[in-house]
């Protein structure tokens, strides 16, 4: 059994109180909240498989890495070797991420752990005086987002969410927003976010935990369950792990650890769509499940079996955005965003920006500085570059927790509406579902004993 990972109420409130006072001191006397001591801050990565290594690899031009943490010894060892081969420098490795947070020489942490761990690690990192870069989607519930916002404000930490489409992909998403702001499609009438469907799974048996994996700690705040896997292996991205499992890579198909495709791809495209609509500080007032398919039976919003994937495989969601603009989130059609307005329409994804308004740019280009105005200044070619600049300026980066959480609330509400099979009326000011106590119960979750944040 792993050591409990809960902070005491005194530790949490004491750290917040110190942060609210404006200055927090480490045990070595270092001021936490001041700019990094050099042009190359010192980072650590917590959670290394797949995306954890991806964000680390992209960050090596901008920061030095002093430590890694992962609950899988094999993953930890492989990535320590990759880092040394790439940079020529060794980093320390830990199974317990708290060892990283105890170190005074680390300025910021990058979190690539599964979604159900994001909030706990993020909060504890900020309370330990670290700036944070956390992979998307940031949270598993809406109330987790509120907690992170509170701690960011009270500690003064810099916090970047890993929605890289805001900084990368040849600026095409920024150009899309600039087109809209410049009136190239007139008034927006509809936005469609295509975010791909998913597949169910066969029955997945409980088997022995792989050697080197601390399964209890991997589960962390989630309920204690058996490790499950079938022998067939995944190819391509996420390869080297079972195709069907409740752990590495495939955890995205389980509501216990993720929000399925709705949160995985939705965190990218719904983010850009919400930004384009100027709804980054509000969100929808109603979310309706037009159609959906779940791979297992549900009762009262919960799956009735625990040995198969349980997140939606197909869906069409209608979100009523400010100005009564409909946003459709669908598993059908091309992956990307279709913007439709009174004067035209265009489509954007990671491979293209297409449509007549785009073609017209050849003879009628956007005003000079239009893309930079969307970004709020010179555009970073790398999301970590923007994060490091924010660390130095002590200003929040391009993907801040407030706009991310507002966007992600749409995705969370979509999932709740699917689980309960009904439309939800949302109060974006109170951030509560209106007149539905059962639905409101899904705004938070209970953490497993020993893995709580006791506040």
UniProtKB/TrEMBL annotation:
InterPro entries (alphabetical): Gfo/Idh/MocA-like_OxRdtase_N (IPR000683), Gfo/Idh/MocA_oxidrdct_glycsds (IPR050463), Gfo/Idh/MocA_OxRdtase_bact_C (IPR043906), NAD(P)-bd_dom_sf (IPR036291), TAT_signal (IPR006311)
EC number annotated for this UniProt entry: 3.2.1.49
Record-annotated Gfo/Idh/MocA-like oxidoreductase bacterial type C-terminal domain positions: 202-452
Keywords: Glycosidase, Hydrolase
GO molecular function, one term: nucleotide binding
Domain of life according to the entry: Bacteria
Name of the top EC class for this enzyme: hydrolase
Boundaries of every Gfo/Idh/MocA-like oxidoreductase N-terminal domain copy: 78-162
PANTHER family xrefs: BCDNA.GH03377, OXIDOREDUCTASE FAMILY PROTEIN
Protein name in UniProt: Alpha-N-acetylgalactosaminidase
Native organism: Rubripirellula lacrimiformis
Lineage, uppermost ranks: Bacteria, Pseudomonadati, Planctomycetota, Planctomycetia, Pirellulales
């Amino acid at each position: 059994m792993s050591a409990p990972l809960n902070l005491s109420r005194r530790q949490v409130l004491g750290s917040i109180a110190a942060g609210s006072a404006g200055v927090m001191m480490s045990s070595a006397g270092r001021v936490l909240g001041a700019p990094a001591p050099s042009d190359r801050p010192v980072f650590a990565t917590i959670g290394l498989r797949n995306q954890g290594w991806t964000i680390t690899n992209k960050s090596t031009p901008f920061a030095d890495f002093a430590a890694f943490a992962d609950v899988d010894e094999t993953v930890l060892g492989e990535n320590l070797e990759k880092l040394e081969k790439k940079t020529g420098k060794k980093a320390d490795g830990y199974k317990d991420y708290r060892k990283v947070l105890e170190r005074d020489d680390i300025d910021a942490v990058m979190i690539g752990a599964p979604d159900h761990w994001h909030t706990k690690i993020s909060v504890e990192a900020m309370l330990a005086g670290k700036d944070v870069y956390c992979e998307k989607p940031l949270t598993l519930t809406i109330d987790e987002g509120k907690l992170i916002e509170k701690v960011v404000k009270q500690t003064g930490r810099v916090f970047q969410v890993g929605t890289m489409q805001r900084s990368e992909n040849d600026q095409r998403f920024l150009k899309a927003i600039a087109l809209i702001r410049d009136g190239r499609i007139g008034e927006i009438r509809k936005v469609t976010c295509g975010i791909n469907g998913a597949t169910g799974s066969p029955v997945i048996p409980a088997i022995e935990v792989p050697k080197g994996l601390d399964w209890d700690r991997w589960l962390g705040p989630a309920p204690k369950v058996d490790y499950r896997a079938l022998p067939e292996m995944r190819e391509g991205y996420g390869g080297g792990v079972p195709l069907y499992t409740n752990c590495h890579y495939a955890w995205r198909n389980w509501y216990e650890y993720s929000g399925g495709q709705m949160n995985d791809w939705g965190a990218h495209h719904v983010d850009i769509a919400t930004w384009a609509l100027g709804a980054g500080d509000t969100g929808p007032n109603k979310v309706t499940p037009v159609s959906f398919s779940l791979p297992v039976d549900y009762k009262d919003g919960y799956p009735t079996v625990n040995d198969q994937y349980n997140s939606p495989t197909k869906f069409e969601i209608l979100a009523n955005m400010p100005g009564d603009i409909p946003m459709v989130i669908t598993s059908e059609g091309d992956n990307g965003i279709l913007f439709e307005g009174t004067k035209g329409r265009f489509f954007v994804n990671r491979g293209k920006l297409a449509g007549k308004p785009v073609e017209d740019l050849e003879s009628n280009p956007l005003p000079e500085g239009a893309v930079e105005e969307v970004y709020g200044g010179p555009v970073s070619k790398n999301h970590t570059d923007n994060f490091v600049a924010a660390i130095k300026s002590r200003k929040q980066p391009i993907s801040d927790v407030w706009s991310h959480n507002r966007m992600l609330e749409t995705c969370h509400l979509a999932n709740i509406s699917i689980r309960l099979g009904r439309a939800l009326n949302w109060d974006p000011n109170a951030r509560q579902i209106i007149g539905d106590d059962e639905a409101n119960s899904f705004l938070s979750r209970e953490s497993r004993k020993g893995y709580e944040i006791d506040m």
